[in-house]
Amino acid sequence: MKPILSAQDMDKALSRIAHEILETYQNQPVPSLIGIRRRGEFLAQRLLVKIREIRQKGSLDFNSPEEPNLGILDINLYRDDLTRVAEQPIIRETILDFDIEEKVVILVDDVLYTGRTVRCALDALKDFGRPKAIRLVVLIDRGHRELPIKADFVGKNIPTEADDVIHVHMTEVDGEDNVILENEKH
Amino acid sequence: MPENTKPWTKKHLIAIEDLSAEEITQILDTTKSFKEVSSRDVKKVPALRGKTIANMFFENSTRTRISFELAAKRLSADIINFSSSSSSTAKGENLIDTVKTIEAMNVDLVVVRHSASGAPHMIANAIQAGVVNAGDGIHEHPTQGLLDIFTMREKKGSLKGLKVCFIGDIRHSRVARSNIWGLTKMGAEVTVCGPPTLIPAKIEELGVKVSYDVDAILPHMDVLYLLRIQTERQYGLFFPSIREYAGEFGINSRRLARAKKDVLIMHPGPLNRGIELDSSVADGPNSAVLDQVTNGVATRMAVLYLVSGVKNESNR
Fold this sequence. Notes:
By secondary structure, chain A is α/β, with parallel strands linked by helices. Chain A is built from four helices and seven strands, in the order H-E-H-E-E-H-E-E-E-H-E.
């Protein structure tokens, strides 16, 4: 199966998103990045590095020099029945050791599909405080939303059929970077 | 945690004896994640929303019952408390009838504490709901064992080769038994120490070492786990006086000074200050007694979460 995104494509997409974030929040308070486990966590970390590199070049920056806070959200305790996986999901830790009250929070996930995972993330964040705004970064938007949820920053839009499966591979978890579209029928 | 951990398949938690090392590890890892929930401002997750849990305590307990109650509530479950003194058992209703009556109210999970060893096992065979053992006779107290092992792992990093010594009334201790099963499966080195009258014969067959001289083994231990002298029991046949027990086996500051500098002092509570241990030891930097209590809620959250997730064949 040929990847629909190569490692370079993924890297370029992340660089573009990092630029877009800095353009959107130019001269505004530093937003926080919160990755949705599992791969969202690593995407958020990579975004943090890219944002740092762009700020160092000097032309784009937030209104203060500190680094964005980085958090990790495990949404398995907030799933609704329809997103419950057939087996029990593994519960990992949520690590949110900074205040989100009245701050801009950027959720980061790998694939946006029905929107239910993001809905769970919104429920989870509610238990931590009331952010000023929540924005969404996704690497891939594959359509087929079941809830009125949209991404604010998208790496790539990939139209899919309902029975397609998108695999996002990342070095930190899978040993390589790429995105593969799989369909049992082809 | 690895990506492909097997899903939890055990509908009941009756004894650590029935768990594999992988299952124990899964509970400990899940406990770690739930510990974070209790440190938030909003100490609740909706994971068990809509589930009903019955706390059936046929033997008195405040601490364990409250710990299970908090665990259930933090998972958003509904919990009802049943205590035998104020109930139909006082009117002579038998155990199975009592539990089946509660089950008929569509309870999803039953937490049972009973003075008879084997009661939770009997209940599990009689009802459809899942059963979690909160202590049965002198058999096992699995959630206590798990929270103790979690505390040891958290404080010491690794359980393999960890030298743990249980001191006191091993004979009547379900806490010691649960810990021994768990710790030996996880590769720790367990020693039991106490008056010979309080150490069951052939306990070595569980894979533990036996000592009757606490001063001899003290300097080698990483963890000293002190068992409560159950003053509600008649100890007349087991040792001459409580004072003599305290002198021979009590961990006072003199004994603590001879132990490893980073030795962990643990106790299931409630403490008998001046008997099993002195106040200076109980309140000192080596003591993990309060950590055990905190970890108890997280451990019970993990157990309730995992056990509730096992689907019944029949739909109720």
